[in-house]
Structure formats: structure tokens, C-alpha cells
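Exercise 7. Given the components listed, write out the predicted structure of the assembled complex. Treat all entries as one system.
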Amino acid sequence: MSSITLSTVLRRRSDVRYRRIEGEAVVLRQSAAEVLVLNEVGASVLDLADGERSVRQWIEELTHEYDADADTLARDVLTFAGELHDAGMLEEVSGEAKP
Amino acid sequence: MSFGEGFLRFPDLFPGRRGGEPWGERSLVLEVAGGPYLVAGLSAAQEEAAHRKFVGLCRPADAAAAVAIHLFRAPSTDFLDRDVRGWEYTLDRDYSPGAVLLAGLRLMGRIDWTPALTGGLWTSHPGGEEWVSTFENFFRVLTAYRLLEQGSALLHSAGITDGTSAWLLLGPSGAGKTTSSGLCLARGGTVLSDDLNAVEMPPQQPMLTRLPFTGDLGDRSGGPASFPLAAVLRLVKGEEDRLLPLSPGRALAGLVASAPFVNQDPWRREDLFGTLERLARSVPAYELVFSLGGGLWDILKGIPK
Amino acid sequence: MSLARVVATTWRENLLFAVLVELTYRCNLDCFFCYNDLALRGEPLSREQYFRLFDDLRDMEVLNLTLSGGEPLAHPDFLALGARARELGFAVRIKSNGHALRGELARRVRDEVDPFMIEVSLHGATAATHDRQTRVPGSFTRLLANLAELRELGLRVKINSTLTAWNEGELAGMFALADSLGLQLQVDPEVTPRDDGGREPLQVAASREGVRRLFELQFERARTAEANQPPEVARGGDDGTMPTPLHKHCGAGSSGIAIDPYGNVYPCVQWRRPVGNLHQQSVRDIWRGSAGLAEVRDLTVEVKDMIAAQGKGSHLLNFCPGSAAAQTGSPLRVYPVAAQRKELMEEVMAEEAKRPLLPVIG
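Answer.
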């Protein structure tokens, strides 16, 4: 079960390589030689995982970008963040998010 | 130290084949013993430097050639920076049945026998004295192998002639090749080279042939003049001038010791021994003790032909 | 969405996804069957030009960047280019002969380039056969030692091989060697002509029996591994993982390109039809506007139709339009080794079909 919360700051792990194809993301995790494809929200999460902003800040940014129900979006983002973290794509960064 | 370690940043990346970026599209042919040699891939600056160094020996590129040398660029980052103060020039050599590899100061070279003897030279020098010096260092080795292929030999020696016959003076560094050459020059003799000479072995008579590889003395230009070889002489400095007979065996030993590059090549040494043995049996050999009085010229002239 | 559908999208929409860059034709080995055109001349791309290219490819969302040659490590800027590729987030593959991949250089590749995969070349199960191909004595022993070192460094390595008349009797040994090293071995059954059309490499093309033996061995290994899929036969630029669900035969020019050391752009490493040059145009402009690429994209549709028209089993041709163009002059013509490959595969599959699924209890 993921330990990711809204205040968690995450970044892409150093062995992750990805590109956006028509909104989605093709992601390669080099160390495990795994490839997966993320939908648009998942791809956006990957873009935002710069090690500086928290999950809460991601949701704020994505709410402006997507015309979606805020609660649903927040739930999806948190879920994705947790899944990507558990799948080894993202790692936590210790310390405070930058405003 | 293994091959190239003293000269190359990554010896493992030494060219395995003749390929890469030529310096330019220029070519020329060198009329030197064992040749003619086509030198291809030159830049304009390199072509000009070659013409200056090998005066009288350059022909247009469309002249017939027996051996080709291909020039390629190598970035300076391929080579280690080296403090050359007090350093005596050497080349690393790697011998295998099909090739000889060379690594030196800003130099990577290979001599291959597939299908015919061909040279490849990679250097970071774009032109000028440094380039021509690098080229000559490679060319000397290639010439040695080409002459070997023809049943001839390139020898560390002084080559002296009176215009009708020639004498080959052998000796290691410091034995007096340049000194004895100077003494002969002062007495009216001609010095072919005080450093490297070619001995060619046609059926009738061994011939001493001029090479453009000189030390302090010697006429670099004027084409590959050849003279019948009258004798092989091992030099010894002494108080007075004397000529002592040398057995074929000792003559052979002296010749082998004087055949640079190839005498350390385990794959082609046998061929060298064969050639030099024939030479040792074909011409008289002597030990020549010489003084600074200049009498050695009279001794040379007095050797029966 | 699955990877297969992403790939299909790139083919359909002409989205560049994979680029192979031949950095140099310099090489520290001298393989007899090498396909490089060593007489090709041009202005080599500078470091700055490569950096601009990589920036463009990054903006175009290219993920896979393969550094090849010759021997890519022999390029003077290899480490800088590889590091830049890593910085820009490419999944970098390195196609190397492995000869120099040891010591400081191997460590720097790991630390500065961090490649997804290093693909090295094996030419036989014995030193005699491998070195016969590379024409550098000691290269086999060196390769094995280097593979052990690369594994210790944590680098991901795969072995590529091409079936030849020289190594076709050592296939089992080669697979055993790869197994003992814990590495995947992918064998391409086809020796190709040189990129300048020279046919000397074909002198060492495998025999019919050799190709058959490869297919048999691959089926045998698949059985042993209890795999369900048919054996993957590697072909040229196709790495065997790209399905063909669409109206094109392959991604050449639609989702992939190859670039030579002089900036010439090709639909793929096998199809040596230049479609532009980076000294004259950016890769973006070539990708969008090249008439040659447009024609290639149409041709891959025609190839698909041509293959389908061959009838049942036509996928067993493992057809490559680039190879077809090189060997017959037309990317649409079935060339003899492809036809032979189909025949042999059908024979081997027929024998496999007769094999009992369960042990016979007598």
C-alpha cells in the first residue's frame, strides 16, 4: 500500500526514460527493462514529477489544464502517484516542496 | 606497458581496418626504393610539406604505384600528451601474421598484407614539419617491409659511394656512421645516407640504393640512385685505420642487428634472415677500424671489387 | 493502451520514435562481412550538430536512440554525445563490438551514458571462428573477458550474431555460451551486401542447412523454455518486438530512421536510400518534408499488400524492403534468401507440428 500523500514530493527515478505519444507516455524503466504506457493523466504526472513540487501542487496545476471534476482528478493523481512510486518509476524526495 | 599505452588514450580503440576520415583528397607518388608509393588522402598543406621534404622524389598521383599509403585524420584526443624533453623517439609495435601495428607520438599506423602490402596512417597533425616527421617515421617502417617483400633490406647504416661502387658501413648508434661519412665526404666521396640505406638483391649483384632517410648527412633528393655493393663493413672507432676480415656469420649478425623494425618481427624474421644470409654470402665483409685521420677512404677504395 | 498500439500509432501517424546514428565508420576490428561503405565520403557531423540533432529528436518525442558505427566508441566525442543523450532522456542503445569495453572506458560508459542496453557482436563459439571474422587475433578472448566485466559493472548487455557459413556449425555452442553468461543471444540468419552494393560479404552467407539448423535450434530452445510464441527471427533493423497490425509492413521512414556519419538520413539502417542530409536541413524538416520519405512511407504500404498477396505463410518471409532494394534493386521484390527462409521455416514448423505434445507411454 502506497505511503504517498498530498504533501509528498516525488521525482522520476534516474533510470526512467519516457516520451509523450499523442498525449500518452511510453515509459521505459531501464533497470528492470520494463516498458509501460500511461494514459494522459499518468503522463502528466510523470511530467510534473520534477522533485520540486508536491502531489498537491500537481493537482492544482492539472485542475487548470483538464476540464475534469476536481475530486476525481485529485483521486486519480494520488492513485497514479502511488502506483508509479510502487512500480519504481518515482521516488520520494526528502524536504519541503518549493512554492 | 602494453601496445600503445604510452601514446594512446584508448589503445583498445586502435584502428582494426583502414577506414576513417581522410585529411583531404590530394595524392602523390613517391619514387623511393621498393616503390613507387602512392600516398592518398592528403590535405593541401600535407601535400605541400611532402613536396618540400621529398624534393625530386614526388610524382603526380596518376603515376603508377606499387604500394599505397592511406592517410586519415585522428583527433588530438586520441593521443596522450607526452613530455618529449630528453625522450628518444620510439614506436610501439605490435606484430601479427597479417599486420604490423604502430603507435607513436600523434601516430597510429598499420601495415597490412591483405590483399597486398598497404599502409594506413592516422595522425592529428594537419601539416607542416610535425606532420612530415610523423609521416616519415611511418614511411620508414613501411619501406622496410616493402623491401623485405622484394627480397631486399632496409639497414641502419652509412652508405658511401665513389660513383661506381658503394660500401655499407654498419654499427649501432654511436659507432661512427655519421663521423665516418663525414670523413669520406671530406675526401671526395658521396654519402647516400648516414642513417638508413636499402640493399636490393637482384640476381647479379647486390646494390646499395639511396633512401630519403638521412641523419645529418646525405643527399635526400635525386632519385633512387643505386650502386653495386662492394663490401659490408662493421665500424669500430680506433686509433688507426685497419681492415680485418669478417666471417659471413659475424657479418650476418651485424646485418640482422642493423635491420630495424623487421628484426624484432617474429612472423617475418625468417624472411629477413634469408635475405641477409644471401647478402652476407654475396659480398665481402670486414671489420673497419677507423681513426679521425680520414684514412678509411683509402681503405674503402682499396677493397678489391 | 499497450505498447503495440503505441507503435501502431507511430507507424500510422508517422511519428518518429527510434533513430539509429552511425557515429563513425572507424572500427577497432575488421570483420570480413562488414556492411559499412568505407569509401563513402562527406563532411562528418560536428559535436554541435549532433547536439542540435538530439535536441530536435527530443522535441519530436523520439525515445529510442541507438549509437552505432563502425565502432561508436571510436568516435572522439562518443562519451560527450552519449552523456548528452542521457541528459535529454533518450533510451540509449549502444551497438558495439565490445572490444574496447573494459576498464576506464566501460566505467565511463556506465557512469556518463547509462545506456539502456549494450549490444555486442559474437561471431562464433570458438576463438578460431570469431577471430576469423573479426580478423583481430585475441578478439574472442577479449570479448568474453569484457562481457564478464560489463556484467559486474551492472550494465545490461545483449549479444547479436549473424549466421554465416563459418559459424553455422557452432550455433549450439554459441547459445550455450550466451546461456552461461546469462545473456540473450539474437541471431540474424542473413548476411547482407555492403552498403555500396558490394557482394563480398555474401561469400560467407550461411548454407541452407545452416539456416534450417538455426530455426530448429530456436524451436528446440523455445520448447525447453516452455515458451508459447514462435521463435523470433531477427531481421536487420527490426528488433523483433514490433508487431505489424497496420497497413504498413514496417516502421522504416514512418517511425524510424538511420543517420550516417556524414549526415545522410535513411529510412532505416538496412534501406540505404538517402532521404535528406542534416548539413542542409534539420531532421524535423526532413521528417516533415522529404519527398523520399513520403515515397518510402507509401512503399511500406505497397510492401504490406505485396506480402499479403503471397498468401498463407507470407509472414515467414521475414521480408525487409531495404534488403530487397539492395539485393534486387526493388524494395517490392521477394529476394531469394527471404523465399528460402519461408520454405525452411515452413518445413521446420511442419516437423514441429508432428512432434507429440505428451510423452508417448508405451
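Discussion: Chain B touches chain C at residues 10, 12-22, 75, 77-78, 96-98, 114 (CB under 8 Å). The helical segments of chain B are 44-53, 128-149, 177-186, 248-257, 269-282, 296-302.
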